[in-house]
Specification:
13 helices; mainly alpha; about 0% strand; about 250 residues
Length: about 250
């Protein structure tokens, strides 16, 4: 465990010192803030239009019409900008030859992958902590459904884990960061839009779709099937990354 934490600490420091890590972090916070202001403005206008319709106004809740759309925007930002953080995690190690040095040391492939994943998850945690400030600040003016918000951020955290897993796997199959970045984009976007092929929730495309499994989570509705899908997808990508890194010793 000490070796895993050492790798994670080193990689997280590198991510926060490189332009890619900081730019991705700053871009997510800035865009999330912009989307939040637009959503608040739209929500206020909608409530004003419903002033003479109390029944419709009662159904226009903060959780469904403000917080959930905001979390959906944050999810898309994670998909778009998250791979920029993982693209060099393993590809750069191979390109510079550091992977050979690491794997001839007492550090095992599983510990290397776990450390890289932990560092990237630390970056995801920073992103989510920053974006959580805005919906939590609503508590000063209106009651916030903390349960629904917690469920939404649970979904975002699991999505971040999927992004990390896919990004590390793509970074492990090439020694070029740009190729790893493009591969991660293709895989993540394919997983996101595959559900559009068939809207039936019982169909195979919907079962494979990231967006379909996140839809209810971002509203605060936690289902075991959604959690299982996200956890299994993360576990499979990390296992595949470990298997790929193991082959480096024999290359």
């Amino acid at each position: 465990m000490s070796r895993v934490l050492a790798v994670a600490a080193r990689d997280l420091r590198v991510q926060l010192r490189t332009p890619a890590g900081w730019l991705a972090l700053a871009a997510i916070q800035a865009l999330a803030g912009l989307f939040w202001l637009m959503l608040v403005d739209g929500y206020v206008e909608r409530r004003a239009d419903l002033v003479f319709d109390p029944y419709a106004a009662a159904r226009t809740t903060l959780a469904d019409h403000l917080v959930a759309p905001y979390l959906g925007n944050v999810a898309v930002l994670l998909l778009v900008l998250g791979p920029a953080v993982t693209m060099g995690a393993l590809a750069e190690e191979r390109r510079t030859g550091r992977s050979e040095l690491l794997l001839t040391s007492p550090l095992r492939p599983a510990e290397l992958v776990a450390g890289k994943a932990l560092a990237s998850l630390g970056w995801v945690a920073l992103v989510l902590a920053g974006t959580a400030v805005l919906p939590l600040a609503l508590g000063a003016w209106a009651p916030v459904d903390l349960g629904a918000l917690a469920g939404g951020y649970l979904g975002l955290g699991l999505l971040g884990a999927v992004v990390v897993g896919v990004g590390l796997l793509c970074s492990a199959v090439t020694d070029r960061q740009v190729v790893a970045l493009l591969l991660a984009y293709v895989v993540l976007m394919a997983l996101w839009v595959v559900g559009w092929l068939d809207r039936d929730p019982t169909s195979l495309p919907s079962q494979l779709s990231l967006s379909a499994h996140l839809r209810d989570l971002l509203r605060g509705a936690v289902r075991r099937s959604d959690l299982s899908y996200l956890l299994l997808l993360t576990g499979w990508t990390l296992f595949a990354t470990w298997q790929r890194v193991r082959t480096w010793r024999h290359a």
